[in-house]
Amino acid sequence: MSLKSLVLMLFIASCFPAFAEQENPQYDAKLAAKYGGDEYGMKSYVLVMLKSGTNTTETQDKITELFRAHLANIRKLVDQKKLIVAGPFEQNDKSYRGLFILDVANIEEAEALMQTDPAINAKLLAAELYPWYGSAALAAYLEDSDKIWQKRP
């Protein structure tokens, strides 16, 4: 790095102190450790985009059966604390059906979990998996999510 570049960087940094890293006076080390957060309160997840699959030949009864099993699988993954967020999309022109955020170590572990989903195995749904970096506090969502629904789908 040239001296000119270094001086320019220092000048820019001095003009914008708000961009400098700051310590959080509310930081709770125990809570960060509980959720596996790094120094920024973040962690790695796998984002799963669920799309319409290639199977369009099933009967309505079979589709209903497979989607009931899909929902049961979601509950199982939540109980295992592997699935942090799940939900459907409204109808759209991209064939996106829903998403999952999985609390797993890597894409391979996420792929293995997706193979436990009957709707994916039957190709009613297809899963696209992406590494995703988000708040480690997402797991806190699970602590209250089971207390707010009146009717289970």
Structure notes:
Strand 2 and strand 3 form a beta hairpin. This protein is α+β, with helices and mostly antiparallel strands. The protein has a four-stranded antiparallel sheet. It is 39% helix and 23% strand. It has a domain of 97 residues: Alpha-Beta Plaits (2-Layer Sandwich). It comes from Thalassotalea castellviae. Keywords: Signal.
Q: How does the SSE layout of this entry go?
A:
Layout: H1 3-15, H2 29-35, E1 42-52, H3 60-79, E2 83-88, E3 96-102, H4 107-114, H5 118-121, E4 125-135, H6 138-145
Antiparallel strand pairs: 1-3, 1-4, 2-3
Looking at this protein, list some descriptive labels.
single chain; 153 residues; alpha+beta; Alpha-Beta Plaits; 4-stranded antiparallel sheet; YCII; Dimeric_a/b-barrel; signal; YciI family protein
Q: Summarize this, please?
A:
By secondary structure, the chain is of the alpha+beta class.
Reading the helices and strands in chain order gives HHEHEEHHEH
How confident overall, as mean pLDDT?
89
* Global geometry: elongated
Q: Unreliable segments (pLDDT under 50, ≥5 consecutive)?
A: none
Question: What share of the residues does DSSP label as strand, in percent?
Answer: 15-25%
| Assembly context of the chains | single chain
Instruction: Please describe the biggest sheet, giving its number of strands, its sense, and whether it closes into a barrel.
Output: 4 strands, antiparallel
Cα-based radius of gyration, to the nearest Å: 21 Å
Figure out the total of helices.
6
Structural class category? alpha+beta
Helix content: 25-40%
Give the class-level CATH name of the domain at 44-140: Alpha Beta
Keywords: Signal
Organism: Thalassotalea castellviae
InterPro entries: Dimeric_a/b-barrel, YCII
Family: Belongs to the YciI family.
